[in-house]
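ping. complex inputs:
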Amino acid sequence: MSVQQLSDLFGPGSELEQLIGRFSPRPGQLIMAQAIEEALLDQKDLVVEAATGTGKTLAYLLPILLHAERAIISTGTLNLQDQLFNRDLPLALKALGIEKETALLKGRSNYLCLHRLEQHGQDEGIRDGDWAEDFSAVSAWARHTLTGDVAELDTVGTDSGVWPLVTSTQDNCLGSECPLFSKCHVVRARRQAQSADLVVVNHHLLFADLSLKQTGFGEVLPGADVMVIDEAHQIPDTAMRFFSQGMSAWQVRELTRDTLVACGQASGALAILRKPIEGVRSAVDQAMARFVDLPAKGEFAKIASTVPQLEALIKALRQLEQALSQVADQSRDLSQCLERASSLEKRLGHFVAGDRDHIRWFSNRNGRFSLNLTPLDIATPLKEIRAQTPATWIMTSATLAVAGQFDHFTTRLGLDDCRELTIPTPFDYARQTRLWLPKDLPEPSSPNHTQALLEQVTPLMKASQGRAFLLFTSHRALRQAAVWLRANTDFNLQVQEEATRRVLLERFLSEPNSVLLGAASFWEGVDVPGMSLSVVVIDKLPFAPPDDPILEATIKAATERGERAFATVQIPHAVLSLKQGVGRLIRQAEDFGVMVIGDPRIKTRSYGRIFLKSLPNMTEVGEIDEAIDFLYGQFHESDA
Ligand code: SF4
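pong. complex structure:
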């Protein structure tokens, strides 16, 4: 396929135009598709920042379907994965008039594990416990599902305690020794993926596979000649998480529970194992008692005084391991519990010992406690992975560049020799938006900052009759804002933490005068086109909290490389987050709106320029009245 033919595909009168009602040829989309085609032909890795509205999914799908023998496409979330597989991919194949074998593959925790279902079906504690109803719903569905994809069973909530009992982990899967291997849903999905020409995965699965954390099935994604990473701005953090080693209190407790269940399969096992199981349970309880009051995450230094409890847990795991080795040959489940006990004991030992290439940290979220060892350098293992595969890597996202530069991204990932491309926005930001930076606000660290900002923006949100997103950098500020707005305004508030994301967005769209208050997860991936969203307020420049251990590890690694970490790590990280937040406002050519950034540092600090230079070209207004006039003008035009 020549460049000319790609231009036919994306041009006026093309098949795409027939298939997509609202399709209009976009120069940026064609440029991106051509660059990808050239990268594939030259086998050169490519990093593309493609602004919202470029149509980047089709821009990579078409050249890939034309040129790749076998391609893997990785997206940021399960939702995006489903959307790409069920909507964009069939459309691209139709536009090209070709057929390909395609597969959708999710992580193993998304598929029913028949062995664990059977195992727990015999456990009276579960049949009569809190999850009894969910368990019988899963059992009934298990009899007829063809895919075993847990998303099919939407009557059982994703947070139900039944799912960890009936899905597998790398730890507890029996692999080829499983009696139900021939019927296994995970195995079937992976086989389909292995033989497909194009597989759609998500970053978690991709990295689990690349970092060989899901062994037992062999390599799932071998032999691809193209790897496309969409939402690539997430890759540095995802890679760091996956090259980390962790162990959680949940894993230890699950091991004791599974060992107890497995005792039923071997005579005399319970007599040997009961005491060591109790020993592990009591050791993990004692360690946990020391961790209860800890913050959500932090460096190992904060829990250094718990080393004696952790050592006691190592000792208890060793005793369980010894006891298991006496009975392990009596069943596959028991021998697998032995492997798990030994692996947990080693990981915990490694954590307590520590080494200079990793940062040690804990996480203590929603009652789940884990210990983690995170590598300071991810470029080296990523380079090794890329060297082992013949694939051309295409990385793309709407937010990758900082003031037009990609270095912070390419350096961190070790992409030394890749092509770079920026596709500018197809939207007319100067016409469609106004940027208002309120004056006289206190410093963001001031306790009065949130209220002062709300007092200034409330008249603007009244003028827009709600239709506003307030994006916060902390949950504390978000809660404070909800209290103030409830006491001083009559907006319909949709507050993160008070309902699920889907419910909040539905209410935001259906209830008039709505204002949505969101923190972290609302800064990206939320798509509200049209007049429903006319104002976005960002409270502060989104610098990551200084106590984030992963960020600390990244800063430490940059400092060791001789860099000024504030400039090479913290600013780029915050710029990309800000670009994500700002990206919520304009989703299509007809949209308009006012962007408010309530952080005086954007004007008063020298680094503020880097933020402003990285944002789309919005027309700045000095006073709120200009922003309100702009909104009235636009509403009037839309009514006319
Ligand atoms: S092979 Fe693993 S995932 Fe499949 S049924 Fe057996 S234990 Fe479960």
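The pocket of iron/sulfur cluster is lined by residues 113-116, 168, 173-175, 178, 180-181, 184, 186-187 (CB under 6 Å).
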